[in-house]
Recover the amino acids of this structure.
């Protein structure tokens, strides 16, 4: 009997939403019974999953629909996490679903300048979003993609353009929570050529929660493929998310990606504008951006502005650079990046949850990095030094030998 697949590519070049990803995973062979059983465990208003074949621009796809009754319950992050915890889901399923909602809460808190515990989820906390996230978690687990060593790559994400109506009123597209999630993960993005929302906050949280890496389809022996449909055809392209599932081939234990380095030296940039410039480069698609002091002609002090960029996003990042700095040009040259596969787990320090990122070299954890905000909160609650809490969280993460709940 052949081993479970260990490689997944998510094609989000036409956008992504929770129901679209769920439909694509089911279409690729995830167990519908497993997903429905997970949804049935949720102690909330009834949640029903239906899957039906549809066509998008002449292409067959699966439309997954989470149907719920109208809810009068307002839920914050603690409420949602309690629902997931009480469901008794398989360990990786519950961990991944919880991590996705923590990522959403963190993004919303940053966007609104509020504490995570006070965030009311509005659209993303609605019953259908809980169903989408738990359903995707169960589907990923069914396909073996929450197992340690699984490799998940996500393409450039189409986010859309224009504006969208939300609980906060009319918002620009991509909406702020989507921007926050994708920027924090260093995800490559594009508008996708549509004047509407192509990537939802739930979709962005799922993609950033599962991705080891971003880019083109990795080398694999293909086992199955799936196409999940959105609710409408776009004039220019099919409204779908696609996945390819298979067995990774030729992996050296780390990820490799061809990128561009863009750099420019400036000596007339107002220092107070520098943080905003780096933020703008990230928003334009830079995977990373930084500055370093340099000495220029005649000993003038200056700044070397550098961005790491996917080839498809080079033009957009250059446009941001010249709009938000006084430079007249930049040097662009290719570079190969190697990166560890990463996941995120949650460890508990005397009952306090601390998220910890881990870096894997093949089957070995070689680095752990606790989320410092969680460490600081745990230290304050427990009355211990932050350095002690930091060390305890790192030690717990190194000892964790279970399946691979991914990062939020």
């Amino acid at each position: 009997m052949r081993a479970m697949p260990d490689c997944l590519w998510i094609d989000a070049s036409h956008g992504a939403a929770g129901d679209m990803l769920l439909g694509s995973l089911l279409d690729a062979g995830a167990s519908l019974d497993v997903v429905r059983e997970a949804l049935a465990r949720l102690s909330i208003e009834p949640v029903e999953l239906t899957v039906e074949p549809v066509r998008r621009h002449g292409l067959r796809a699966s439309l997954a629909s989470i149907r719920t009754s109208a809810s009068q319950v307002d839920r914050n992050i603690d409420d949602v996490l309690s629902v997931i915890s009480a469901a008794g889901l398989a360990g990786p399923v519950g961990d991944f679903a919880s991590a996705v909602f923590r990522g959403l809460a963190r993004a919303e808190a940053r966007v609104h300048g509020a504490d995570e515990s006070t965030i009311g989820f509005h659209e993303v906390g609605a019953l259908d979003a809980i169903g989408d996230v738990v359903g995707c978690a169960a589907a990923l687990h069914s396909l073996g993609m929450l197992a340690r060593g699984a490799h998940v790559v996500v393409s450039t994400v189409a986010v859309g353009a224009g504006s969208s109506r939300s609980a906060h009123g009319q918002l620009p597209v991509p909406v702020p929570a989507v921007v926050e999630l994708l920027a924090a993960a260093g995800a490559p993005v594009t508008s996708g050529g549509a004047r509407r929302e192509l990537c939802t906050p739930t979709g962005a949280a799922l993609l950033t929660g599962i991705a080891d890496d971003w880019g083109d389809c990795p080398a694999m022996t293909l086992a199955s493929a799936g196409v999940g449909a959105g609710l409408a055809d776009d004039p220019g392209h099919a409204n779908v998310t696609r996945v390819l599932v298979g067995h990774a081939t030729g992996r050296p234990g780390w990820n490799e990606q061809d990128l561009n380095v863009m750099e420019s030296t400036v000596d007339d940039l107002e220092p107070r504008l520098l943080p905003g410039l780096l933020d703008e480069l990230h928003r334009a698609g830079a995977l990373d951006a930084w500055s370093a002091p340099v000495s220029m002609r005649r000993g003038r002090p200056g700044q070397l502005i550098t961005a790491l960029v996917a080839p498809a996003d080079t033009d957009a990042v250059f446009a941001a650079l010249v709009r938000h700095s006084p430079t007249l040009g930049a040097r662009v040259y290719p570079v190969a990046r190697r990166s560890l596969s990463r996941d995120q787990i949650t460890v508990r320090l005397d009952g306090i949850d601390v998220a910890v990122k881990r870096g894997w070299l093949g089957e070995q954890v070689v680095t752990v990095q606790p989320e410092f905000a969680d460490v600081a909160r745990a230290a304050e609650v427990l009355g211990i030094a932050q350095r002690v809490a930091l060390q305890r969280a790192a030690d717990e993460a190194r000892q964790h030998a279970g399946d691979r709940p991914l990062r939020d």
